[in-house]
Fold FCD domain-containing protein.
Amino acid sequence: MIMSLIQQRRLSDTIVERLETMILEGALKPGERLPPERVLADQFGVSRPSLREGVQKLVAKGLLVSRQGGGNFVSEKLGSSFSDPLLTLMENSPEVHKDLLEFRHTLEADCAYYAALRATDLDRQHLQAAFDDLHACYSASPHSSEARAKESAADARFHMAIAEASHNMVLLHTMRGLLDTLKRNVATNIGGMYQLRDEARERLVNQHFELFTAIMENQPDEARRIAGEHISYVQEVLAHSLEAETRTARAERHRFLDEFAKGQSPLKK
């Protein structure tokens, strides 16, 4: 029998594996700076040259970016599922907004369920901070574009904190890949909803509070139900808006044809 040789594993490969796991689990986020080399070497119990070799391997893989004199960062491109040109197309398509809400209905309901089931004390601290930031936005006027952008970013961070607390890496990185699209979608939605219904903001405030409470109190089924109802409410309001816009456009087309039939071309007015 021919026995294959057992190859000794390089220490840098173990370091690579540890850092990859931290990235995969969301402990290290896109754009985040790694701790200083000395601190990280002490934490892993390895020499600085071994750590440096592991970091360079991750740089070569495109997972880390090394900046001269600035340290090492997790690549900001991680999880970017959509290119900027595609984002522009999606922003201008009502159908895509509708599709994204349908996808969010399934995705965020599952995130909420598993977050309520699995959240650790540290997850709850992060979720509390994200909820506090979002709640602070609700005290400001929603009528300026700057305020809506700030609120949409806080809303997206809140839902990302829920995804992180789910401890499901596929759900987490799917949400992270949609983050830019999600922020744009939320900004568009809240601007339209606040104009359409006076009670919309109060409903969203209450829904987010109920969702936050269900997760913090370890109620997975309740968290899933509330997350689903939250997205369903947004879908309902925006569907009515789209129907109203469609009716208005149809009425304008009929007016155009009626005036044209009477020999009064509206183009000459």
Q: What stands out?
A: The chain has a mean pLDDT of 80. Residues 220-261 form the longest helix (42 residues). The chain is about 70% helix and 5% strand. The radius of gyration is 24 Å.
